[in-house]
Design goal:
The chain has 188 residues and is α/β, with parallel strands linked by helices. The chain has six helices and four strands, in the order H-H-E-E-H-E-H-E-H-H. It has helices at residues 18-35, 58-73, 101-117, 133-137, 153-160, 162-185; strands at 78-84, 93-97, 127-129, 142-149. The radius of gyration is 15 Å and the shape is globular.
């Protein structure tokens, strides 16, 4: 779950805090994945930054500690749950590190399932990024799942509701499972 503690992330048009929506969806995602038999390690399970032995700039310390946890647990993939903001757009979008073939595959699986399961009218496509810290510094293939846009009034309301959060979590879980099946089948 992205952000947390002193870092609220984006504030929605409806005043919802990104950190709260991220955590709610991430917890639901964990339940969906565990029901499917996957082991899930969360970087945070409460409204707090990711603490570690380091001190200093809170945001950079939080990001370094997230990457350290990923390095320690050696997951098959790292999925960071976020909400987006930009004027007059909507829909989920998944980001991957520009040069990561596995990240691109993971992003594609999750994006396709989200677009279908959430019945997105104008489906967005995956997007490469070479600046997001978690994508650049993660030792595991990593993606950032932007579940929707908090700047879009209709989407901000949906993202704030328990029912839609559950639908998002289920779609992301299906995308992860589909991708892991594919990677296991083809020996990656």
């Amino acid at each position: 779950a992205g952000h947390g503690g002193d870092d609220p992330g984006k504030i929605g048009i409806n005043q919802a805090k990104e950190k709260d929506i991220n955590l709610a969806i991430a917890k639901k995602l964990k339940v969906c994945l565990e029901k499917a038999g996957f082991e899930v390690v969360m970087t945070r399970e409460a409204d707090e930054s990711v603490k570690g032995p380091e001190q200093g700039n809170k945001k950079s310390t939080d990001m370094r500690n997230r990457c350290a946890k990923i390095r320690e647990t050696k997951p098959a993939m790292a999925v960071s749950v976020h909400q987006n903001s930009y004027t007059e757009v909507s829909g989920p979008q998944v980001f991957y590190y520009t040069t990561s073939a596995e990240g691109k595959e993971i992003a594609g699986c999750i994006q396709n399932v989200m677009n279908k399961e959430l019945q997105i009218e104008r489906p967005r496509e995956i997007k490469a990024n070479d600046t997001y810290y978690i994508l650049k510094r993660s030792e595991a293939p990593a993606v950032i799942v932007e579940c929707g846009f908090l700047t879009n009034p209709e989407e901000a309301e949906k993202l704030s509701g328990e029912e839609y959060q559950e639908q998002v979590a289920e779609a992301v879980a299906k995308g992860i499972a589909k991708c892991l099946e594919y990677l296991n089948e083809y020996g990656n």
